[in-house]
Amino acid sequence: MEKKQGLIDQTLQDLNNDGIDRRGFLKCMAWAGTGLVWTMSGGIPMSRAFAKGHDQSVAKSGNFTFVQISDSHIGFNKPANPDVTATLQTAINKINAMPHTPDFIIHTGDLSQLSKPSEFDTLDQALKGVSAKQIYFVPGEHDMLSDNGEQYLQRYGKGTKGIGWSSFDHKGVHFVGLVNAANLKAGGMGSLGHEQLEWLEDDLKGRSASTPIVLFAHIPLWTIYPDWGWGTDDSEQALSYVKRFGSVTVLNGHIHQIMQKIEGKVSFHTAMSTAFPQPAPGTAPSAGPMKVPADQLQRVLGITDVNYLVSGRSLAVVDSPLGDSGSSASGHGGGPGGGS
Amino acid sequence: MTRENVWIAGLAAPVMIAMLLLFAGSPSATANDQPQAANAEVKIDNFSFGPETLTVPVGATVTWTNKDDIPHTTVSTDGAFKSKVMDTDEKFSYTFAKAGTYPYYCTIHPKMTGKIVVQ
Q: Nearest 5 degrees, angle CA B64-CA B69-CA B71?
């Protein structure tokens, strides 16, 4: 825990150049691993412990839970994690042990390490054992390596548009899966591209501003660290289309660590990987896999569990490391500015 | 080693690196501007191409080797050459038959860019 706190503090210093005081806020995120709940309510973030009362509220009719998993990198076998299939399985076991079966799962990309059919097969086999009936995917750059994503689209992109983007509605919440890890330009970061942006604008048009919106994509849709390409060149345009909505949640992967930012009514969140951690921005010569002692690995891998509560039209995001026993973060409350 | 020695070693290392860089900056940097032997190497390490700019004579074969734990590609921005995905320790070679400047990048991590100058 101390180690993680240290990393997060370092990250803060790198991110704080913009003058926005996120220090106290992100410090709270150090608790996320032990089950802190972030609740978005009318644009005001509130945190509280992941406790029994929360589960009960999820059980009420109309409320629901979904889980985000990310960056499984099936096929990766280097020292940072020689058995990524086993840690994916641990993630699946964790999902299956949840008190309420999630309505569905979102996988935010980098399913595979090298887009190999055998890697996709292994992933499919493992995901067959998950409790949730439905899984939605968006590709990461590792899933479209050699064939312009043809195989990915064949397996995971049925019914999607373009290179795999799509949207769906679930119990009053509108979900949009975007692809920003394909056709990347030299020197750039993630990219959505003109065609997808047009589609997005059209997709959101005519929807009531009170509809909660969830955008998910592999690469962060907010600029975290341009030197490592941790951002999306044309994300601002995409975000301009969701400005009028009262509750917007943006879920990403790619950076293999938890980061959160709240801007007005938009809450941004990146998930842990199920495979290996990556260093905090600027804390290593490159973004390569971070090696941690074997007994620490499950603390830096994890899943993200998102709860939608009808009463507040709010989404609560809970990150749980694989190695967590599921206990609550005790005695923690208050908003992002204080609390932790 | 005493604590004091550790401190000295800690201070000495950056100084030595700086000196090495200074030396590298003078005579060997000019070597990079001159055409080198017909076969040249680019090492992919820590999400970067090294050297970032490589100058070779016409007919030279350049070989890229991926030393990272993560796959990379080497793709010319104007379509002259395109590697397959290189996993750790995998290589890609291309022979430059025509003079010119060939910018390239990793299509997986587009912040990684490099240039081959063929003279």
A: 55
